[in-house]
Amino acid sequence: MSQFKFWNDVNSILSLDGPITKGPQSRCERKKTSNLLSGNSSLNSSKQRSLSTSCLNNTSKTPSKDSDGYLNSKTPSKTPLRKSKTPTPNKNAKTPGGDRFIPSRVASNLELAQFKLSQDENEPEGNTAKELKKAITDNIKGSTASGSHRILSYMNKAPAAPEGFQNPMRVLYSQTKTPASVRNTNRYIPQAPDRILDAPDIVDDYYLNLMDWGSNNILAAALGSRVYLWNAGTGNISQLLELEGNDYVCSLAWMQEGDCLAVGTMEGTVELWDCSRTKRLRVMNGHSARVGALAWNSYILTSGCRSGQIIHHDVRQREHIVTTISGHTQEVCGLKWSPDGKYLASGGNDNVLNIWAAVNEGFHTESTPLHVFTHHQAAVKALAWCPWQPHILASGGGTADRHIRVWNCNTGSCVNATDAKSQVCALLWAQNYKELVSGHGFANNEVSIWKYPAMTKVAELNGHTARVLHLALSPDGTTILSAGADETLRLWRCFVKDPVKTKDKENGVKAKPSALRQCIR
């Protein structure tokens, strides 16, 4: 029997058609039960209330008779019911002065409101009211004869500024909005130099070029009559040469590749030195005054002197002078070949910037300039060619000009002109971030970084106490060197590439499969 009982229980559990006899009640059943309970409780409470009322009414000693004439009780209650001292809820509660729809009018001035309602708007004002209103109007707006209805107004115009006055706040309030490319930059630019080197006896002359950083990562610095070499990788410093007598070094220029250094002197000679062996290779004459600017284009060395003369030297030949050109009436203080070797830029103390075109299939220039720019109002020493746009040239003027101008040498037009507010001594391009760096003299003595082509200032590097005469860029493009008249060399690591972005670019470039791998099956 127990076995049959077990299987009956299993079947009843598994069956879904019949009613559920076990388990929790459904929601509708629970609701029905709660309604019944609440109804019973209300009936019980009403019965108790009626009984208590009847008991209170029958407090007399004489028993009462019902409707049929029979007594309700044989004996009266010995203990009469007493009235409860507990007050009925909300029985003694007072109704508040106002409800949520009709506010309290205690603070209202009903007499004034009645007067305003009964007053006639068309009733003419009295003379006293008109005089009072006129007096108030005259006091606030001024005399009615003037016809001015402005409460605040200038009686006299502002005095005119004196002739030649420049408002120093004009730059602050007239500056255009910063481009989004500049605003979104989150690159950290250190405001302190990474290293400071001493440069005693450096010649404080705006027209000389005394610093150059070669592709071999060696910095050449001319200090007076000596030339020193500083190896940026090892930190070693060595002396290359020392001129005799009153002669001193006026210019330096590394060859594009190799350890050959060209040195221009005050005597008008150009010397070639092999720095790996510390040996002088040759001396080239041809200038009658000091050589303040040098520039290489393959095996052609171009030199400019104080007389305004420019000479192209072929360092391979015994007769080294290839061409002599005259494009300036005063000292040549800036010389730069374009990266592709098509153009030569020369700047002079005569405020002239010349662009010379290279001869066909040659590394020297024609005898007449391609473009002559006279926009600068001071000496043009700072010159720099754009490495990613070889036809773009940046030039800077002296104290009387203080402008940085960008030129398109293919069309001969000025692309941009920016007021730098101080003497421009040196310029160079930073390819890692497409920016232009400028070194300034009086009156800021700072190094500025400009975003190209918007030419908005990104950073100002301060630290020099005298004008920044020269700038040089490391071969990897991460560090700039500034040489100042305060006899210090400061290295600024401003253009270090983001390692994350560099890695992403390297991963994005797919390696070209070799032909041998394609042939193997």
TrEMBL record:
Domain of life (superkingdom): Eukaryota
UniProt biased composition (Low complexity): 34-54
GO biological process: anaphase-promoting complex-dependent catabolic process; cell division; positive regulation of anaphase-promoting complex-dependent catabolic process
Coiled coil: none
Region ranges (Disordered): 15-101
Cellular component, GO annotation: anaphase-promoting complex
Annotated WD repeat ranges: 249-283, 325-356, 461-492
Keyword terms of this UniProt record: Cell cycle, Cell division, Mitosis, Repeat, WD repeat
Gene Ontology MF terms in the entry: anaphase-promoting complex binding; ubiquitin ligase activator activity
Domain annotation CDC20/Fizzy WD40: ranges: 197-492
SUPFAM superfamilies in alphabetical order: WD40 repeat-like
Family: Belongs to the WD repeat CDC20/Fizzy family.
PANTHER family xrefs: CELL DIVISION CYCLE 20 CDC20 FIZZY -RELATED, FI02843P
Protein name: Cell division cycle protein 20 homolog
Organism, scientific name: Sitophilus oryzae (Rice weevil)
Gene field: LOC115881373
